[in-house]
Amino acid sequence: MQYLFSVVDDGTGITGPEVDAAIDVFNDRLRAGGHWVFAGGLASPDAATVVDNRDGAALVTDGPFLESKEYLAGFWVVEAPDLDVALALASAGSRSCHRKVEVRPFR
Amino acid sequence: MTEAVTRAHRDEWARVVSALTRRFGDLDVAEEAAAEAFATAVERWPADGVPPNPGAWLTTTAQRKAVDRLRREAKRDDKHREALVVHEPQPTGADGAIDDDRLRLLFTCCHPALAVQARVALTLRLVGGLTVPEIARAFLVAESAVGQRITRAKAKIKAARVPYRVPSAEDLPARVSSVLTVLFLVFNEGYLATGTGPVRPDLTAEAIRLTRLLHALLPHDGEVTGLLALMLLTEARRPARVAGDELVPLDEQDRGAWDHALIAEGHALVRERLAAGVAPGRYQVLAAINAVHTSARHMHDTDWSQVLALYDLLVRIDPSPVVALNRAVAVAELDGPEVALAVVDRLEPELAGYHAFHATRADLLRRLGRRAESRAAYDRAVELTGNTAEIACLVRRRDQRA
């Protein structure tokens, strides 16, 4: 079973080499436990561009789809046998990156 | 005969649902098959007689119903075919001490990933065996809302794969605490029901029944014991707590009308926890406070210094303004209403919208002879109270002094 951990930044998140190091430790733990699937950090929402080609005429607009104080700062995709294991991992992940983590199962 | 089915429903419902959930790995299938099995019992037992082991009969019948349903669905839909695969029983926790399907069911229904109201509805339905209309009536919400809460919760359990097992020793205290929160909510809703009627004995009884079950499954958990004792000592006072349609406060209750068997049982549980010599949690301290109150034959025999010492302990565990407010009542008895009023007034910023804050203030002001202020505080308390029996009590106390 795979879960998406969305890292939510509400403007209070801190960054720096110490946070990066803590995330590296957490990533190593994911790999060692066989939970690692994929992960990535995202650039600021200011760098986002929205494309809408539902009508066959692509409309390109600057900025994020939703303007909000909270935004997606990164994500993990993890393999876990059940939600309790996923929540325990997310708890360690949240601690490592100093941000809230939303846990959502893949279908 | 209906009595036999009713008794079996009370005693066996949770066992049937939990056993089926483990076998089929699906709460929906388990709930529906259990309901069908009990409906079959209503039809068959009057003619065939009550089977020697009603629980085993019900579980077997429910399992057949579940297999029938899954076969029917498998013909229509390939997705259901995998549900026919019998799930291997999950290995128990490392300590292996607790192995009861009902405990797994309780932990699943009270999982912290579910909203509290959903936990309450799901627990009453799947563990307590209450019907959706019964739950809706008890909480004064629409049936459709209760049905939706239960459906959504079951869907989340399935989609997010909430495991069907007793949590690991490491997670156990937090998870037990989540179960206790649900049981205490059910009890309190019965004890201080919103709307008309002072108490809902069906809800308090259900909460006690489920807490007894949890206590039987986790006999060494101090907080489970504490909550059971707290409920028993509170329930024991129920016969004296209401006169007509009016709530009777502790200091005016006829103590002879208390249920002394429940008090003895509650006191024994509190003594058991004291003997354990382990630092108590919130529910154990609350139970101990209630044990002191129920030990006093008259209000003036109450050992207030012990009550205050216990509240001091509680403040350290739970530094909430509501606890500080209740502590002030003991302060009033020991140091007088003036000292207590000063304590209470400091809580105003946090408790200005809480009826008990104004009721406590009103009583202290009354004792200090500050009648106009007391009356105004009673008025504010009445405005903020949701329970008609409590309003009647507040109005009488207010007018007594006018």
From TrEMBL, chain A:
<feature type="domain" description="YCII-related">
    <location>
        <begin position="18"/>
        <end position="92"/>
    </location>
</feature>
<comment type="similarity">
    <text>Belongs to the YciI family.</text>
</comment>
<protein>
    <submittedName>
        <fullName>Uncharacterized conserved protein</fullName>
    </submittedName>
</protein>
<dbReference type="InterPro" id="IPR005545">
    <property type="entry name" value="YCII"/>
</dbReference>
<dbReference type="Pfam" id="PF03795">
    <property type="entry name" value="YCII"/>
</dbReference>
<dbReference type="InterPro" id="IPR011008">
    <property type="entry name" value="Dimeric_a/b-barrel"/>
</dbReference>
UniProtKB/TrEMBL annotation, chain B:
<dbReference type="InterPro" id="IPR013325">
    <property type="entry name" value="RNA_pol_sigma_r2"/>
</dbReference>
<feature type="domain" description="RNA polymerase sigma factor 70 region 4 type 2">
    <location>
        <begin position="106"/>
        <end position="157"/>
    </location>
</feature>
<keyword id="KW-0804">Transcription</keyword>
<dbReference type="InterPro" id="IPR013324">
    <property type="entry name" value="RNA_pol_sigma_r3/r4-like"/>
</dbReference>
<dbReference type="Pfam" id="PF20239">
    <property type="entry name" value="DUF6596"/>
</dbReference>
<dbReference type="GO" id="GO:0006352">
    <property type="term" value="P:DNA-templated transcription initiation"/>
</dbReference>
<feature type="domain" description="RNA polymerase sigma-70 region 2">
    <location>
        <begin position="15"/>
        <end position="75"/>
    </location>
</feature>
<dbReference type="Pfam" id="PF04542">
    <property type="entry name" value="Sigma70_r2"/>
</dbReference>
<dbReference type="InterPro" id="IPR036388">
    <property type="entry name" value="WH-like_DNA-bd_sf"/>
</dbReference>
<feature type="domain" description="DUF6596">
    <location>
        <begin position="175"/>
        <end position="272"/>
    </location>
</feature>
<keyword id="KW-0805">Transcription regulation</keyword>
<dbReference type="Pfam" id="PF08281">
    <property type="entry name" value="Sigma70_r4_2"/>
</dbReference>
<dbReference type="GO" id="GO:0016987">
    <property type="term" value="F:sigma factor activity"/>
</dbReference>
<comment type="similarity">
    <text>Belongs to the sigma-70 factor family. ECF subfamily.</text>
</comment>
<dbReference type="InterPro" id="IPR011990">
    <property type="entry name" value="TPR-like_helical_dom_sf"/>
</dbReference>
<keyword id="KW-0731">Sigma factor</keyword>
<dbReference type="InterPro" id="IPR007627">
    <property type="entry name" value="RNA_pol_sigma70_r2"/>
</dbReference>
<protein>
    <submittedName>
        <fullName>RNA polymerase sigma-70 factor, ECF subfamily</fullName>
    </submittedName>
</protein>
<dbReference type="GO" id="GO:0003677">
    <property type="term" value="F:DNA binding"/>
</dbReference>
<dbReference type="InterPro" id="IPR046531">
    <property type="entry name" value="DUF6596"/>
</dbReference>
<dbReference type="InterPro" id="IPR013249">
    <property type="entry name" value="RNA_pol_sigma70_r4_t2"/>
</dbReference>
